[in-house]
Amino acid sequence: MTLAPLGEPSLLTDRVYAAIREGIRNGEFPAGSRLRLRDLAAQLGTSPMPVREAIGRLEQNGLVVRVPHRGAVVADLTPVELAHVYATRLLLEVEATRLGCAAVRAPDLAAMRTAYGRMVDAVAAGRVAEALDHDEELLTALYAAGGNPVLVGLVEDLWQRCRAFKLLGADAADSFAPEAGAWSTQRRLLEAVEARDVDAAVAVTRESLESSQRRIRTMLADAEDPR
Amino acid sequence: MTLAPLGEPSLLTDRVYAAIREGIRNGEFPAGSRLRLRDLAAQLGTSPMPVREAIGRLEQNGLVVRVPHRGAVVADLTPVELAHVYATRLLLEVEATRLGCAAVRAPDLAAMRTAYGRMVDAVAAGRVAEALDHDEELLTALYAAGGNPVLVGLVEDLWQRCRAFKLLGADAADSFAPEAGAWSTQRRLLEAVEARDVDAAVAVTRESLESSQRRIRTMLADAEDPR
DNA sequence: GGATCCTAGATGTGATCACATATCAGAAGC
DNA sequence: GCTTCTGATATGTGATCACATCTAGGATCC
What we know:
homodimer, mainly alpha, Arc Repressor Mutant, subunit A, Four Helix Bundle (Hemerythrin (Met), subunit A), 3-stranded antiparallel sheet, 10 helices, 3 strands, globular, DNA-binding, transcription regulation (chains A, B), GntR_C (chains A, B)
């Protein structure tokens, strides 16, 4: 983990926040691992102060849980909680797909195609985390076209919360069926949106979320009971 | 504004956070007003440190906006943003009503009735802010019965963000038509839920949100153009 | 006379320090 | 031998301090 090279967010707190969140996103800090103030501060070359504020903000996002006087750990989701997150994602993302597909314009489509191309490259190179980033980039382009940034913000929030599980599921799907499997839904979504076929796009979104939830649930069950 | 009497949240930061958020909720800090670190600290009898962390967390919730080195102000919503919030609330709360109404049990109904009674009393006494609290309490009881805390959390988040406008709208509705007006939707919702009539409950939720959005939008238009 | 630069005050930001609380190891007691 | 108490250590929490940045007021130059 390291700090971004100063420039965009001039505030040290923001850079620390971004660094820790990125560490959680890419799996460097797995769910359940402790986040020690002085350790992180030393690792980032700052005082504990910005780290404290960053962790406080991460807690509000649901990425870490903090118990008073006992520190913070990266949030972990029980299978039940994960089901709730996915049920809510389904509700929000179906609507976002509907809105986006109805209002999408040329620049949005271009952004989606760009993200898709990068995702394909990343998958081919085996860089799963990066592929997931571009996947989210593609969807964000579509959802943002719908014109409701509040809705998009909530969706992104939920993505953050189940990022670790998305990584897990994508990783497994990739190593299991590199070609035909999970990464094909993006192509089908893109085609449906290009054809302005709202129903088809919604169907892809629904199917994609349900299948990835199934995949993750299976993995969790296997991890519980590795016969 | 004052600190809660120690006990519940033992952390000073949490108490400061609650105090400021409450100040925003009840209109003590109107939208757009500045939140000065040293002022708040002095007012609460603490050092600026907990206030800083509290404001950082409030920013993540979208209740305040902060520009680097220039301080924080209570978040203000443009009419467009307000429309986005209400569109998203409609999506989430219709679903929450559906889930809650289908799964509601006796204790949940009891909680709803208690909250309703308190709300009626508060309305009668002209305590609008308190009435709004009990209104949200009633809805939370229903939504929580649905069994998806993630969904409920997002709804509460959106409530916070448009709290100032809810207050405005409720205040106007109350002074305008104390008896027949806006506070009757809760009774109708309660009746629909007691009858386990999902469609009726959903209809009330939808109608309530649309009418309150209309009411707020009208008020904003009047404020813009007070002929 | 108006615009620009500069200085002084205010204020947010980051660091160091002091304290409270929790965790864990080892010893004493049962 | 196991439990329990008690100390030490680690670590989060809150306060004070030093600095950077922004804003407002006035003087100077065009």
